[in-house]
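Assemble and predict.
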Amino acid sequence: MSRTRKDRPGRTGSLTMADLAELAGVSKITVSRALADSPLVTPETRERIQALARDHGYKLNVSARNLRLRRSHTVAVIVEMKPSSDRTMLDPYPLTLLGGIAQELTAAGYSVLLTTRQGAAAAAVQAADGLILLGQGVRQDAVRRFDKLGLPMVVWGAHGEEDAHAVVGSDNRMGGRLVAEHFLRQGRRHPVFVGNPSHPEIFERLSGFVDTLTAHGIKPLLLRRDEFTLASGIDAVHSLATRKVPFDALFACSDLLAMGAIRAVQELGRKVPDDCSVVGYDDMPMAAAFQPALSSVRQDWQAGGSLLAQKMLALIAGEPVESQVLPVSLVARAT
Amino acid sequence: MSRTRKDRPGRTGSLTMADLAELAGVSKITVSRALADSPLVTPETRERIQALARDHGYKLNVSARNLRLRRSHTVAVIVEMKPSSDRTMLDPYPLTLLGGIAQELTAAGYSVLLTTRQGAAAAAVQAADGLILLGQGVRQDAVRRFDKLGLPMVVWGAHGEEDAHAVVGSDNRMGGRLVAEHFLRQGRRHPVFVGNPSHPEIFERLSGFVDTLTAHGIKPLLLRRDEFTLASGIDAVHSLATRKVPFDALFACSDLLAMGAIRAVQELGRKVPDDCSVVGYDDMPMAAAFQPALSSVRQDWQAGGSLLAQKMLALIAGEPVESQVLPVSLVARAT
DNA sequence: ACAGCTAATGATATCGATATCAAGACATCG
DNA sequence: CGATGTCTTGATATCGATATCATTAGCTGT
């Protein structure tokens, strides 16, 4: 029984370049060149081999090529996906960041390898040409751990004092300041920040907010809420009411939280924005259709993703890359 | 100053098993076994080698292993990302599907390779152990094209008549029927469907909607809108008003569209739901906080993602897999 | 003591592609 | 006519891991 490669059991039934070479009566390397459109082979034989490859459904073995070329045209994106009640990357908005990254990288011919920090899958990360970290603070140990891989790396989040790598993030401090100024213009006396400041980005919003207000002699209250849900916003306001804490302005660090808060304030029989103004964060599309129309700080997640990807591509190309903060803007509507 | 990249001279900078072997005074294969916790090596030498690997920061070359083992522990997810005005996978909700997939697969030790249909990046797909297709209709040529790769494949979307592969999707027809019955119970006479029926899933919603209504002697109107935005919803209602078409019930195929429509209806001086009831789709979290509280068809994208992933894992394990439709439910609120 | 057995390790081939260098065919030029 | 150069193709080594089969050391049993 002749062992032709045609009758290999099962597998993918895929031929190798060696098979093609035999079929065409040339050597492997000629096949390799022909398929790569190398000018080193006669147009005639190139055509012939390419046709052969098409007809027989030849499929390149990417692992073999990656091994030989020592690059994978793949960028790993590592997201924080702890199943806790914390805001996870599985939320729609952080995922938008991923969408921006994917769009930019695939346009450049790169693939995106999506992984979590935990899990055995982390092994695959090492095959990547670069690393984008989402959802973990910059100073976390995770960042240092991945730094050890020696891969080009870009991080999304708050900026550290002395970052060893490029960081891209929204200007959260500016977001806090804009809202503070908004409240000051309205003459509010008892502003409250609602959110989870243990999250570095949100901490920055808080500090921009607090700094601006205290500079004007106003001392805001911090109401800590870990969840970014409607219920959490409602609950936050209830908590203020039962404690009889005075408040006339709320800065919630997500739109959902803000909407919940507004409903709760209204249920207390108080008017928004007359008795209490409210500002959210992210400016989701329906913020404008909310009643009353929600004021919110807009940050462009998708643009952030694109930027992360662009910096990554630059790093891979060996160019130097700087950290960058993306400006945010306050969209002042009714509340 | 940019210290973006570790500047090692020449080489890849990382050692290989051969290097470790030399350091430990054993052979490559012993190193391989030691690192794989194989019982074939003495616990003592295993410890020694593992310590050595740690100390020297040894990193496995995944491409090499993939080549040898002929599997990559990677599942490719191919999403439709055309930059048209169509609903793209970059929208938050379809991305949630991806979140579910990622969570399930990474928990099982697999990585997710995210790619678009176009682009050279498609090459990397062939290295995957399986393929999940999102965002393209089942009967599209794209599906057939990827089918040729001979990889385990699962598709998200509407179910075809005779599918050659496993399809998972929401029960869109049921969604349409539920809304139709809701309108019938309310005694509505002039229901309108707002959305883009060229999208197979949305076409199913439409047909479930229409079939149920016509069975009760009511003929709904189709108002075609391609975008899933607030503006589009507003515009849709305006178009009805200027054409003086009578309507007393709107079924919008996204919540955003529904919210825009509601605002437009209210601006016309008509009451929701008294003069016109409205139902959206997806039941986004803030649907409940909308005023009036939005009724919506709930579909669990993330669960869909998990299910896709589970079926993929089963396929990879060689088990047979059936197509499946996920039930949806109508969350009837004020509108 | 010697055949027979297990435990631990190693030599070699292999996965499928590409880089390097060499070689044959053919044309050009002094 | 021989030397040189260009064009096309090929033989071989290599990337870094693992499978297979062979080998050695240590142990038991009668």
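Residues 92-107 of chain A form the longest helix (16 residues).
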